[in-house]
Each structure stands twice: as C-alpha cells, then as structure tokens.
Design a protein that fits this description.
The complex is a heterodimer of chains A (290) and B (372). Chain A is built from eleven helices and two strands; from the N terminus they run H-H-H-H-E-E-H-H-H-H-H-H-H. The mean pLDDT of chain A is 84. By secondary structure, chain A is an all-alpha fold. In chain A, strand 1 and strand 2 form a beta hairpin. Chain B is mainly alpha-helical and 372 residues long. Chain B has a domain of 240 residues. In chain B, the strands form two sheets. A two-stranded antiparallel sheet of chain B has the order 1-4. The C terminus of chain B is likely disordered.
Chain lengths: 290, 372
C-alpha cells in the first residue's frame, strides 16, 4: 500500500472531520437548546468564508479577520434568533421553514456582493512540513489544531462555566430552568450565537485550504446533518465522533475510490442509520448529551 | 343538522367552481398570446408539483423534501422511454408514474417509521441520492441531459382542435386539464374517509390510532399519492422545457416548491395553485427581483411564516370566518335559532374542505395551520 496516499488521506480526513464537526456542533447545539433544525447553518459558513475574502481584498490579514468574523457572526446569530426564531418557538417546524428562507436570502446576498466567481484567499500559513516522503501543508494542520482548541474551549464553556451550565439546563428542561431564575430566552439567543460563530469558523478555516465559491457550503451542510444523525441529535460528543468517522472514511473513499460514489454512499449511510438507529450510533448516555 | 337542500346547494356551488375553472382554461387556451400561454402552462405544472407536497404535508402532516427528486424520476423515465425506446407519450407517462410510485413506495416504507424533522431529513437524503444517482447512468445523458420529445396527440372539442404538444395553447390545455383532474381527485380524497384519516393523523397520531386508524399505512398512502402527482408534474415539466438535465432538480427547486406551498397555504386545495401562480407570474413574467428572485422569495417565506403561517388561503379563510361570525351574531340578535354555519364554506377550498354537516360548529378542532 502506498504510504503517502494513506497518510494524505488521513490528513485530508481530519481536515474534513474538523469542518463537519464545527457545523454539526452548531446544529446539535441549536437542536438541543431550541428544538430548531437550522438549515441555514451552511450559509453562515459561506458568509464567514466570503467575509474573510472580502476583508483580505481590503488589506485585512487572515488573523485579524478571524476574530472580526467570529464576533460578527455571533452577533448575527443572536439577532436572527431574537428577531425571527424566537417568534415561532411553539412550532419548531416554522423555525425550520424560516431557516430555509434564510438559505435563499443569504445565497442571494453572497451572489449580489461577490458574484459567482471563485476566489483564492491569501494563505495564512505556507509552511509545508515534510515527514519522510510525505509533504503535509501547514494550513491543513492549522485547521485541525484550531478545531481541537475550539472543541476544548467549548467543552470547558459548557461544562465548567455558569452560562454553559445555564445553556445545558435550558436544553434539559426549559421550564425548570426558568423556575430556577435562568433567563431562558437570553440563553437561547446565546446558544444560537455560539452556533453561528462555530459555523462561520468552519468557513474561515475552509478558505485557508480551499478557494471560495458559492457552492463551498453545500457539502458541509449535508455532511453536518449526516454527522448530527450519526452522533445522535443533541449530543456534542456524538457530533465530534461522528465527524471523525465520516471525515476520515470520506477522505479514504475519495482517495481510493471515486468522489461521486462516496457521495451516494454517504447518503445511503444516512438513510440506513436513520432507519435502524435514528437516535444515533452512539448510545447517548445522559452525560453525553448537552 | 344539515338538510338535503343545504347539501344540494353545496354540490351546485362546487359544480359552479369547476365549471368556472373549465371556462377560464378554455378562454386562456384560445388566447394567441404566447407569453400568457407559457405562464399558464408553467403555473399549472408548478401547481401540480406543489400539490404533491401539499398532499403529503398539508393534509398528511409529513414535511417531505423528496418531491423534486420524485418529479425528476418521472421526468427522466418519460424522456428515456420516449427518446431511447420510442414509446408513445401516454404509455411513457404511465411508465413514469409507475417508476415514481415504486420509488415513492420504497421511500415511504422506509421514512414512515420516522416523524417530524427525522422524516424530513430522511426524505431529503433520498431526494438528494436520486439526484446524485440519475446523472451517473449513461442512459440519462449524464450531466448533458436528454430531450423529452413529447407528443401527446391532439384533442377536439366541438369544432375546435388543439395539438397538445403545441406552444400555441395545446400544451397549456394539457397541463391545465391534468391539474384540474388531479385537484378534483384530491378534493374527493379529502372528503373521503381515507382523506379524513390523513388529516386526523396530521392533527394527532395517537388519537388517530385510538380510533382505529392505521397511522403507518395512512402516511404511506399519502406519500405514494404525492409521488404519483410529483411524477406526473415531472413529466409535464420535462415536456414544457423540451430538454432535461440534472441541475433542474436541485435544492433550490425544493426551496421554490416550499415557498409556493407555504405562500398559498398548507392544507388548502388551491393553496399550491395560488402560490405557483404568484411565483411564476412574478419570476417568469414580471421578472420581479431580476436575477435575485430567489432571495426575494426567501424573504417572502420568512415574512409569511412570521405573520401569516397559514398562507394566503388561511388569511382568506379567516376573513370569511370573521365575516360570517359577524353576520351570524347580527342575525342571532333577531332570531336565535338560525342555522349557523361557520367555516370556510363547502366549495372545497377549506383546510380539510369541511362539509358543514360533519363537523358542525365545533369544526375548529381540526382547523389549524396544518403543522405538527
């Protein structure tokens, strides 16, 4: 077996897994706390990617753009939830429909501002690490490293901080949380803001490796859903593990087989899991849920 | 509490509605304005396609995202049978509907185990898998596509004659007639026990089970019916364009369909028609929003969900209800015992098209915005 292709597939798989994990974590957070399936998650990713590109043409560097995009998308998420989704809390279906409307709106905004062309963003890291005969681009390692850092930070936030505890309380039982004096609505907005920031971070990381174009978000959104189902909706740990499984197997499928075949196979995988284990592959113990 | 006279009046009223529809269709069909004919045909096709979602979702309560994929199955099947195997149009239509039924049955059996958003994701996965698979087959012309070569023959009414494949009225007539027949059958279905069972399952599956409705089977039947309608719509869509290719059936087409159904009104017979008419007239005729019409309709979807989740038909029905209640209240002042008939009327446009005799003054139990 070709060692080079094997290692390359693992690295590519980890890169894919990182982006899928970020999208799926956002989806699972919003689903767990707000009962909403946010189809617009992919568009938030796309928006993040384009804003980094837009800022780069204005001379703003990658590392300056990163915090700007994160704060901006968190604010956007907070605003979207309080202005739109908060009004349809009683019927989650309507929340899903609003997110579908947002797909079309954001898609057009991106088209209007940047057009259908493909752009390259200046690479934040051009180093290439060579291990034996294998060349590993530093940017790919960066994606994986940043994602791991964010996962740790998110875990600490949800597990150890008071706002994190409040978000988990709202997810488990919003009525009880309200009775304990937690401002439930505000923490729902915050959960949505965090989710939006995670999605846009996925976009920011993607442009470090891939060019920006309007279809950039199509695959991550669908994969986000597959990961969400794979890991069990509402389970952050499941989302990360699901992303690892899907990302690495996808990279191997593309490396050793064919891209379109892998895509169909992933959809079949989603169907099979939904059929046999709609609550996810990993039995979500209480600890594993939000 | 309904007399035979009331029922006769209802029948006469709905007969008038269908007659009116026929007059409008023939009038438009005689028009020589190609633009009107094209807009009319496309409206009928989209109304049909969206009606397939309306049956599954508006009446049955399952939000399916596979309807575009099922329409693609119909369109491709017809094109392959006609172009590659030389089948006549009507036989190919049968084959296309058969294919849509088989695929719809498989999806329905698998997806009917799930409900809520899991059902939606399942149908989305199937729909996308279909759209990813179709172009990989050599016989579909892959990403290039293939011609549909539609030839449905001619129709004669009295001294008038239309070539149904013709852009000069014939194709519009074909689409409109198919739409009217399908809507008529859906209206019949909704008033039948099976249709009422569908609405009961939508409103409360547990309660429906308790009155001996087989929930799984009812949902499956609704889904397969939706597949039949989607298959027919796909064939007509392919015929309208003359040439089909994979990027016609993408996620944005799914969004278009959702916008039409929500805009017109979920669970109303003519909701999809109204939604489709607005969509087609604004995008294809007025070119409202230019190349950004997607965003405009996304905005419209958000606004409708926030302020009128029942859609335009819902707004209309509410207005009629309020008007009737006020009139009843006025009449009740003079004579208390007059027969009160709240509801959206017997013309077959109501959320479940309630005939006043079955639900009486309390029919609001089943009149909701059609969501779960």
């Amino acid at each position: 077996m070709d060692v080079n292709l094997f290692l390359q597939s693992i690295i590519n798989g980890l890169v894919l897994a990182s982006v899928y994990a970020l999208v799926a974590l956002g989806l699972t957070l919003v689903f767990g706390v707000l009962d909403i399936v946010n189809f617009a998650q992919g568009q938030l990713l796309l928006l993040g990617a384009y804003v980094v590109y837009g800022l780069s043409t204005k001379g703003v560097g990658y590392w300056t753009a990163l915090p700007i995009v994160l704060v901006g998308s968190a604010a956007l998420g907070y605003g979207l939830d309080s202005a739109l989704f908060a009004r349809v809390r009683k019927t989650p279906m309507n929340g899903l429909l609003i997110s579908i409307g947002l797909i079309a709106i954001f898609g057009d905004v991106v088209q209007r501002v940047w057009g259908p062309d493909q752009y390259d963003v200046p690479q934040p890291i051009t180093t290439v690490i060579t291990v034996g005969s294998v060349r590993i681009p530093g940017a790919r390692l960066l994606i994986v490293a940043v994602t791991i850092l964010v996962l740790i930070a998110l875990t600490v936030f949800l597990r150890l901080s008071r706002p994190g505890a409040a978000i988990r309380a709202v997810a488990q039982n919003s009525e009880a949380a309200a009775l304990m004096g937690i401002p439930v609505e505000r923490y729902r907005h915050i959960a949505f803001a965090v989710s939006a920031a995670l999605a846009s971070l996925g976009g920011v990381l993607l442009v470090a490796v891939f060019p920006v174009d309007p279809t950039l978000s199509d695959s991550p959104l669908l994969k986000g859903f597959i990961v969400l189902i794979l890991g069990g909706a509402g389970s952050p740990l499941g989302a990360v593990l699901g992303a690892l499984v899907l990302g690495v197997s996808e990279a191997f499928g593309i490396g050793y087989w064919s891209a379109s075949g892998t895509q169909v196979l992933e959809l079949v995988l989603l169907i099979v899991i939904l059929y046999f284990r709609p609550t996810g592959l990993i039995r979500t113990a209480h600890e594993a849920t939000l | 509490m309904t007399s035979a006279a009331d029922r006769r009046q209802a029948v006469r009223k709905s007969g008038l509605v269908w007659l009116g529809a026929a007059v409008v269709i023939v009038a438009v069909g005689r028009s020589s304005n190609l633009e009107i004919l094209n807009v009319g045909a496309l409206t009928a096709i989209w109304a049909l396609w969206s009606s397939s979602l309306n049956v599954v979702w508006g009446y049955g309560g399952d939000f399916s995202m596979a309807q575009i994929g099922l329409g693609a199955v119909g369109a491709y099947m017809e094109a392959v049978l006609v172009t590659h195997y030389g089948w006549p149009f009507w036989a190919a239509l049968g084959g296309a509907v058969g294919a849509a039924v088989v695929v719809g049955f498989v999806i329905g059996v698998v997806a009917a185990r799930l409900s809520g958003f899991y059902f939606s994701i399942m149908t989305l996965a199937f729909g996308l898998a279909l759209l990813a698979l179709v172009p990989t087959l050599a016989i579909t012309g892959q990403s290039t596509g293939l011609p549909t070569n539609i030839a449905p023959g001619t129709i004669r009414i009295g001294g008038l004659e239309w070539n149904l494949a013709s852009r000069r009225g014939g194709y519009f007539l074909l689409c409109a007639l198919v739409l009217v027949v399908v809507l008529f059958l859906v209206a019949r279905l909704v008033k039948s026990p099976r249709g009422r069972a569908m609405v009961a399952v939508r409103e409360d599956p547990v309660l429906a089970t308790s009155v001996a409705i087989d929930v799984g089977r009812t949902r499956l039947v609704a889904f397969v019916l939706g597949a039949v309608i989607a298959g027919i719509a796909g064939v007509l869509y392919g015929g309208y364009l003359g040439f089909i290719f994979p990027s016609l059936f993408t996620f944005s087409a799914i969004i278009t369909m959702i916008v039409q159904v929500v805009l017109g009104g979920r669970g109303f017979l003519i909701g999809p028609l109204i939604g489709a008419a607005i969509y087609v007239v604004l995008t294809d005729w007025v070119r409202f929003g230019g190349q950004y019409s997607d965003g405009v309709f996304g905005l419209l979807l958000v606004v409708i969900i926030l302020f009128a989740p029942k859609g335009l038909c819902g707004l209309g029905a509410d207005a009629i209800d309020a008007f009737r209640r006020r009139r009843e209240a006025g009449r009740a002042g003079t004579s208390l015992a007059s027969g009160n008939q709240p509801g959206s009327g017997p013309t077959g446009t109501g959320p479940i098209a309630p005939a006043s005799d079955d639900v009486g003054p309390h029919h609001s139990v089943v009149q909701t915005d059609g969501t779960r």
